[in-house]
Amino acid sequence: MTFDEFLKQNPNHSGAFPYSLDDFIDKYPKYQGLRYNQTFQGIFNLLTSTNSILRMMEACRLEKPALFGVYTDIETLYKPYLQELQKNKKDFDQFKQAIGSLAYFVLAPFGYESNKQRTMSGSEFFTSAMHFVFYPEKAKLKIVNRPIIVPFEVEY
Length: 156
Prior knowledge:
- This protein is α+β, with helices and mostly antiparallel strands.
- It has one domain (3-151).
- The protein has helices at residues 3-9, 21-27, 38-47, 50-61, 71-85, 89-107; strands spanning 112-119, 128-134, 141-143, 149-151.
- Strands 1-2 form a two-stranded antiparallel ribbon.
- β3 (141-143) and β4 (149-151) form a beta hairpin.
């Protein structure tokens, strides 16, 4: 399928990440309590932006954890919330695990698979995060030069 054919078949395609926070919660029901958490909603929106996806991919290409590409944005935008949450280790750890699961949820459709946990340097809140490896044959989505997100089978 060509890009023009794809647009004809999908005239309302916005180019945005095609999965919702509800899709994430359905896949990871243990994070159900975060569905209406405004901070987590904001982090979902941040991590599903094309720019953030590209930065996580680049971090992985450089052999770093995916979150290395976006942790400064997370910490800058949500520092007060994270500092408050840090007072309850269990909740704080679960919140960070949810962010890690979200990184995988975002990158998996682009052909990324978990590789191994890597140390995060420079972060105030994250001590380690997952590194992912790219497998082109597993990709269902790709980012094209527009930049918008389209199904992987679309030729651009």
